From TrEMBL, chain A:
<keyword id="KW-0732">Signal</keyword>
<keyword id="KW-0813">Transport</keyword>
<dbReference type="InterPro" id="IPR051455">
    <property type="entry name" value="Bact_solute-bind_prot3"/>
</dbReference>
<dbReference type="Pfam" id="PF00497">
    <property type="entry name" value="SBP_bac_3"/>
</dbReference>
<protein>
    <submittedName>
        <fullName>L-glutamine-binding protein /L-glutamate-binding protein /L-aspartate-binding protein /L-asparagine-binding protein</fullName>
    </submittedName>
</protein>
<feature type="signal peptide">
    <location>
        <begin position="1"/>
        <end position="22"/>
    </location>
</feature>
<feature type="domain" description="Solute-binding protein family 3/N-terminal">
    <location>
        <begin position="33"/>
        <end position="262"/>
    </location>
</feature>
<dbReference type="GO" id="GO:0006865">
    <property type="term" value="P:amino acid transport"/>
</dbReference>
<dbReference type="InterPro" id="IPR001638">
    <property type="entry name" value="Solute-binding_3/MltF_N"/>
</dbReference>
UniProtKB/TrEMBL annotation, chain B:
<feature type="domain" description="ABC transmembrane type-1">
    <location>
        <begin position="308"/>
        <end position="503"/>
    </location>
</feature>
<feature type="transmembrane region" description="Helical">
    <location>
        <begin position="228"/>
        <end position="256"/>
    </location>
</feature>
<keyword id="KW-1133">Transmembrane helix</keyword>
<feature type="transmembrane region" description="Helical">
    <location>
        <begin position="110"/>
        <end position="130"/>
    </location>
</feature>
<keyword id="KW-0812">Transmembrane</keyword>
<dbReference type="InterPro" id="IPR035906">
    <property type="entry name" value="MetI-like_sf"/>
</dbReference>
<dbReference type="InterPro" id="IPR043429">
    <property type="entry name" value="ArtM/GltK/GlnP/TcyL/YhdX-like"/>
</dbReference>
<dbReference type="InterPro" id="IPR010065">
    <property type="entry name" value="AA_ABC_transptr_permease_3TM"/>
</dbReference>
<keyword id="KW-0472">Membrane</keyword>
Amino acid sequence: MKKSVFLGALTVAGIVAGGASAATLDEVKARGKLNCGVTTGVPGFAEPDASGVWQGFDVAVCRAVAAAVLGDGNAVEFVPTTGKTRFTALASGEIDLLARNTTWTFSRDVDLKFEFIGVNYYDGQGFMVPKELGVASAKDLDGATVCIQTGTTTELNLADFFRANNISYEPVPIETGAEAVQQYIAGACDVYTTDASALAAQRANFEDPTAHVLLPEIISKEPLGPLVRHGDNEWADIARWTLNALISAEELNVTSVNLEELSAGTENPEINRLLGTEGELGSMLGLDAGWAKAALGVAGNYGEIFEQNIGAATPIGLARGLNAQWTDGGLIYSPPFR
Amino acid sequence: MSDTHAQTVAFVRETQIPPSPPPVTEAGAVKWVRENLFSGVFNTVLTLVAIYFVARFAVFVFPWFYNGVWEASSRKECLDILDGATGACFAVLVDRWDHLVFGFKYPPDGYWRILVAFILLVVAAAPALFASLPRKLLFFTAFYPFLAFWLIWGGSLWFPLTILGLIIATVLVFRLISAQIPVNFRQIVSAVIGGICGIGLAYLLFIGAKELVFIANSVGTEGAIATIAYGVFWVMAVFAFVFCVPMGIFVGYAIYNSFEDGGLVSIVASLLFAYVAFSFLLAPIWMALNSVVPIELEAVASRDMGGFMLNMLLGTICVSLSVPLGILLALGRQSPMPLIKGVCVVFIEFIRGVPLITLLFVANVMLAYFLPPESNFDLILRVIIMITLFSAAYIAEVIRGGLAALPKGQYEAADSLGLNYNQATRLIILPQALKISIPGIVNVAVGLFKDTTLVSIISMFDLVGMIRGPIQNSTEWTSVYWEVYGFGALLFFVVCYSISQYSQWLERQLNTSHH
């Protein structure tokens, strides 16, 4: 009671109250559910399916953390957030983890007082134009009208790009991706710009996908990753190393198929440490020894999650590209489990 | 007839000529068309232009409906089936029907509960809407909210029933003290309750003063804003400390002093009773009853409500709460008592000066900063409170218009009959004022119902949120627009048009002025 009055008073006095509570892990365990912030819907990344179950690439991170902490990948309360409400939801303690294709930037990390726990998807901002426009490069877009989602980093990147190249444009601000596509198809804007992954996903559902081209320029770095609040390093460690476990498992060839077999013990000490048959990594995090095994048991390793939700075989059809393991020339890289 | 002209006129017709049919241009459809569509050059041109646009629209829309695909599992499949032809993809409505109507998280084996609640809503609303139905049905209307709560949210039936019981008990306490007991006994009751309230208030103020000192010291004096806040909290603390005993004595004595007519003391006593009952008796009673005779449905969290059901839920609850609240605010604004009038004016003007979406954002994100992190003050409840307050302010102004439209003679006539304020308001003023206000109230109600879609902005999945979020962003159904939004528009039109038809019917029923 005293604390709530105190916090309220601090807010009244105009001082931002940071770090509402210290032990997120205890709260999650007591609640028996992980409150995980997701989008209201981005194809392949987070969307409820026809029976109402959340699916997707970001959703898989939530489920993996829930499995590591609570042993059950379904012990997640998915809290849908918009681009505008996501940060307040996390800062106010409504959610424990935000896995909502959020770009890791300096100001979000430092000024908004969040802790990005890693990168689960390396994206970049691209442009889509109708083929009949005959544009071959983004630098030919002088005077174009551009559909752009408000409140995102893409909006700022766009301004930077056009200013740096000294060409003019007219923005058409739009709230959601679905609206942007509708405006673009209806011809309200010449160009639609957002993360290249989303462009590819949305173009796949056009009536005639071949009538639209993605321009070669990728004008920004968009490292998308899950994040937590500042001030609870134990919780941040759990989330960070759960993501790393998914990534390491792919590197070590631990899959949902051979998980049971390998967790009986192997010749490879790092796999043993990861799966808890050797060492005490789990107890250092304050979790069971089998935490990583539980996280991997939900949907497999990073590569399996990728292929299942957004990979080449899905309607989204994204190639691994930058998101391949470092051993395959990509950027996905986990520090060692030691 | 006489024979006067029998010799002078060769032929006299003795039967009437059968009426000949009117000219073709003056009868039937042709006449209607001539008079209504081609009555002049200007109207003819307008008609031709209108026909042109209607025809173009029909040529575009008809194949769209006619070719509509009802069975497909994704937009891609729709396009494949259509194979280049124009056609709607209604399959999205079939595939996501449950989500559109009930939201995607409501347990599917509980859909019947929503349907039963909706059918009973019609039954419960009927006696309130149609005066010709037996008045006894109003008992069911009063009981309905508790039943509907149980059906929609689930849990134990005893929980809402116990609440109902405690509300009835509170009313009984009020009536007992205000009218049923002899005056000298009431004097004793007043003394006891006055004493309790006086001491309680003094104690609360004392605690508050200590809390304020604690807050002031926590804020500290670093920086200008903090220093100002520090000073303000200290001044408030000193006030609370100095006035705790005098305020307690004053309030306690005021309560004791009201024993003769029993007004104040019965209100305070029933509030005290309600406080004690709801904080200490509610949980044990319903849990005990439930352990004896468990009547339970699977509990559903508020966060899992969605689809059109959420719009209906918010619309129904907020309209039915905001009309009485609006009446109170309107009467309060007319009140000669400056405190009541001031509070009402400030409230109404503040709420009307703030956009609803701002209030919803406050409910969604800002309150979370003020409330302690572990408190789970229900999001739907917060939204209901905000929408109710918002529409109550508007309804209050509509009703104030009705009150102002009454001739002064009505108030004076009520006074001259010897009616007191309550009787005059209830029997003379409100029936007339509300009759005048019906179109305005219905206008606010229809607007409010449509405004419930604004909750989609704060990431609640009502009908529009469901369309904008999960459906349009699912892998299967991206780029589906007209079908889903058209369906949403249809649902809203049906409800809003029914409301407006009802209000017109009601106006005709109440038209007692016989102009």
